[in-house]
Amino acid sequence: MSETATPDAPARPEAQPPLFDLLARSWSLGAAIRDVAIDKAGKAAGFALEDGRLALMPVEDPESALNRIRVEADSGRSTIRARQKPVAAPILTPVLAGEAPMLAPSGMVGLIAAARDGRIHRVTPRGQVIQIMAKASPICAIASDSGGRIALARDGRTDLHEEDGMARLVGLLTPGPANTLAFAPDNRSLAVMLEENLLFGQPRQGYDSYPLGGSGPLAFSADGAWIAGSNGKDGIWLLRRADGGIARIGNFRAAPGSIAFSKAGDAVFASGAFRAAGWSLATPPIGDEAAGALRTGRSGLVLIEKIAAHPDRDLIALGTADGAVSIARIGQPEEMPLRQADGSPVTALCWSADGVHLAIGTAAGNAALVTLPPRLFK
Predict the structure, then answer these.
(1) Is 82 helix (H, G, I), strand (E, B) or coil?
(2) 299 closest CA partner among 253, 261, 359, 259
(3) Cα–Cα distance, 310 to 119 (Å, whole number)
(4) Which of 21, 291, 333, 376 could form a disulfide with 11, with the two C-beta atoms 3.0–4.6 Å apart?
(5) Cβ-contact 214, 229 below 8 angstroms
(6) What does the pLDDT read at residue 12?
(7) Mean per-residue pLDDT for 310-327?
(8) How far apart are CA 313 and CA 377, in angstroms?
(9) Cα–Cα distance between 15 and 259 in angstroms, integer?
(10) Residue 318 contacts residue 297 (beta carbons within 8 Å)
(11) Which residue has the higher pLDDT, 6 or 196?
(12) In the predicted structure, residue 163 carries a pLDDT above the cut 60
């Protein structure tokens, strides 16, 4: 049986709320949020809670900001009417893991939630929990593709499974556990990041090895031409698949906790600095880490903890260590403040596939789905 959480009280209709309250649905979940994922159909956002549960919110909003915009006929000025009804409470699953579950979009329906002890569940957008693996064999990392396959990293091996029935398809022996897994956009190739090296290839045809190890995020560009990963210490690396060209970028203030490729901006960004750290892929920093550097957003006194690139526009969302969230245009110094700082780090940040919704989670257990009308960025 699922539970429900109590949403934050709605803003008073007699006062003009700030932008965040006009655009966002927000909830207090009572446990730290460690990750967020949106299912492939764009139906639900799932927030992984530190107490082992998953909180689900429908992406579709019956009282969406898109429907509350009014354009004055004489001036063309846009205003957004305040929300009239309280937001619906999210669905909370039972405890699925001993800590925050690892998340991946399901190739069938909803999300995959994996516990490090080996239990794996599929969770539908309406909160139905279906156990698909009960094997007590510890899992270190998980990834899924859009073809219904799941990659699981265990100590000394990475296995590829069919999600439907979890039949094992093929395995890869590794010198220790993989820290992060990621499928290429074409769904044929898999990247396996270990402490000291990166293995990349097609599971049935073999892997190439690169001296690009680390821990933390691992990401592909939209066209699959680039792979980027965190070294788990003070920087990131970039691998150009066409020729094996490698860029290493260091001197971050903290280990980058998120990496994002911008398709529209042809650029890559990483958190872990006092401003958005980004580089153009047209002039990549191979051999010179200053090459292609993009000055985006403002430099401040608070670290960027999470960063997410808009799927279609040259925009990035920035979440800081004090809880603030803003949106910046790539290569421009201006930022649009979205969420005010509240002292709790932003721990999860994710755009919906259509770029209309931004999911936000914090270490204090505050979750939000922000609907961003396209006219805001014209």
Answers:
(1) coil
(2) 253
(3) 33
(4) 21
(5) yes
(6) 38
(7) 97
(8) 9
(9) 38
(10) yes
(11) 196
(12) yes
